Amino acid sequence: MLILIPAYKPDTSLVQLARDIDQQAKHTESTVHLLVINDGSGTDYIPVFEQVANLPTAAPAPSLERRLDRPGLSTVTVLHLPANGGKGAALRAGLAWAQQNLPHEPVITADADGQHLAQDILAVGQATQNYTDRKARCLVLGIRTLQDPAESQHRAPLRSRVGNALTAALFRISTGKNIADTQTGLRGLTPQIIPWALELPGDRYEYEFTMLLRASRHHVELAQVPITKVYEEGNPTSHFQPVRDSIRIYAPLLAFLAASFSSFIIDTLALLILVAAGMAVIPAVFAARIISALGNFALNRVILHDGGPRPSAQRSLGRYAILALVILALNSTAMEALTRVCIPLLAAKILVEGALIPLSFSVQRRWVFARATQGEQDPQLSSRRTDERGTEADLTCAVSQLTDGGKELSPNSSDRGKQTSKAA
Q1: Does the residue 386 lie in any domain?
Q2: Which range, 73-82, 152-161, 242-251, 261-270, has the best average confidence (pLDDT)?
Q3: Which backbone phi and psi does 4 adopt, to 5 degrees?
Q4: Which residues pair with 377 in a beta bridge?
Q5: What is the pTM of this model?
Q6: 105: helix, coil or strand?
Q7: Does residue 286 sit in the same domain as residue 233?
Q8: Other C-beta atoms within 10 Å of 48: how many?
Q9: What gap in Å lies between CA 38 and CA 84, rounded to an integer?
Q10: What pLDDT, on the 0 to 100 scale, is given for residue 149?
Q11: Are residues 202 and 291 located together in one domain of the fold?
């Protein structure tokens, strides 16, 4: 298996994590390849990465014939990226390297800040290896549900608890699936899904959530493995920016809400214009609603498209019309029921709309604009398929250029756009 750790300005906990992985792999008699991505940390952090690259030299190297079968860290590679591109970009660079150099190995991603224990990383790795042996398209998630006895006095940071609750709710609305920990960075990818993962958008923390959102609609199985909750007081080594990165993660829902608000503005303006032009109020209401609905359909068809084959406009429009009628019926019925029990009209409107927005978002994402089957694809996309197939090759080529054609360099190399690689 290959353990992939993206790191940005790490401290010595990264070195300790690599040592722990080595010891745990020996204990479980596992052979592990370690790939650390230096995501443009700068020259001040090169010593930390050099310590990681030099770890295997601390023990006598076995014979060449036994080297790849030796339990523990078999190889350690540090890939230096020239500039900080974000966690998503670093993960894609690592996956492209893995596909080029170890195409048949499962890839286990872990965080560099010490919040994942070595035994949990190897447990997720073993589960992923089992799915790999079955040739399954699977994403294995390390779910933080086990309490760490050594850290019983530390609770998860408030922003982590709130963030995970929000993303879990959004994930459940979008996919209908329950995942206890949507923000986990400890994941296992079978080799069968790495080409798909390379095509996912997002350069920062949103990349991992996008991976979850699109998994079920691209026939990727989601498996869960319980792991230990480990949180440092204050989480000092985290580079998560609460406002900026949260906006990226929640972009699909925020864009949907913006589209809904824009349709309200369009509906209001159209109504005012039509009435001012002399149209009677009732026909103007219906005409304005049709105009705003078509505008909302056009926006959501773009916003809720998940990168897969786009369904035909005719199919999506028909389903959208059915949903609009159902939402209208539910809205009217609920408003009537609430006002009958003396709830003020405005309060009833807010309650009903608040309940129907998540329903509408879920149905549109999972049915109206769902990933098309081969016979339902938009014919306008057929001309773009050749270009899309080149995405993976471009990424692999980019990493190959960064690593100087795959040549191994000395840990003391001054060229930070290349890799340091050493075998035990």
Answers
A1: no
A2: 73-82
A3: -110, 120
A4: 311
A5: 0.65
A6: coil
A7: no
A8: 22
A9: 8
A10: 58
A11: no
